[in-house]
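Comment thread on ticket #2218

A.B. wrote:
> Attaching the input chain for the structure job we discussed in standup.
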Amino acid sequence: MIFKSFFGFKLEIGGLIIGWLGVILTGLLIPVCVVLMQVPYLISRKSGRTIDDNVTFSKVLIIILSAFISLLAFSCFIYSLLLRGISNRSHKKILPAVILLGTGLIGLGIGTLTSLSIDYSSDGILQVISGLLIYGYIFAIIYSLYVKIKDENKSKIIVAV
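C.D. wrote:
> Ran it. Output below, let me know if you need it in another format.
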């Protein structure tokens, strides 16, 4: 399943589009999560109760959002490596993006199977399957780019010898 183009564009352009979208979207979500960490304090102020009354809710929300922020920062770093790998023609810098997207695709596949076993509405099934197809296509494009650049680098080594 090696692709030669991304919607008619070269694989490198597709990789740059995916990389920049990844960096921008993860970069925008980090401040949103930081703002959401203030929700327990806002709720306690509005209800007139102290934050100690909602300690469990507050701690759980802050722990979940902190973990999500660290994952977003990690993803932003991986997407920036993808951009650098494309510009430097280095398949080693593209590999982390392939691993990240492959792991995400496996997780999304498991989530799809779980969702299909729980919810049988046609709208839900259509959304989940279309999301899986789009994510699978993005993974296939980045994997194809990785293989292309790796082969180019391997042929350069053979010619140099």
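A.B. wrote:
> Thanks. Noting for the ticket: The CA atoms of residues 7 and 14 lie 8 Å apart.
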